[in-house]
Design goal:
About 80% of the residues lie in helices and about 0% in strands. It has about 100 residues and is mostly helical. InterPro entries: P1/P2_N_sf, Ribosomal_P1/P2, Ribosomal_P1_arc.
Length: about 100
């Protein structure tokens, strides 16, 4: 994850995301650098429009809370479920009582 953070930091600073710069950022952060991971991240980000990806990610984040149910609705649903469970338990106990002639 720190490799992606380093790449995002370079992008934000307007620096080129290459192996040398990525290594410098990771070393400055005190991360033990894995050469293979550095090469993989640089290769994976080659030709990728990071600004576009960040824009899409922020749109998804903003839309998610709107779709979430209201807390009041969740509480009502929980109460309904609890009542259903209690009713099932009462029915089960009533059935057991009939077995013993009560």
């Amino acid at each position: 994850m720190e490799y992606i953070y380093a790449a995002l930091l370079l992008h934000k600073a307007g620096k080129e995301i290459n192996e040398e710069n990525l290594k410098k950022v990771l070393e400055a952060a005190g991360v033990e650098v894995n050469e293979g991971m550095v090469k993989a991240v640089v290769a994976a980000l080659e030709g990728v429009n990071i600004d576009e990806i960040l824009e899409k990610a922020s749109q998804v984040t903003v839309a998610a809370p709107v779709a979430a149910p209201a807390p009041e609705q969740e509480k009502k649903e929980e109460k309904k479920e609890e009542k259903k469970e209690e009713k099932k338990e009462e029915e089960a106990l009533g059935g057991l009582a009939s077995l013993f002639g009560m």
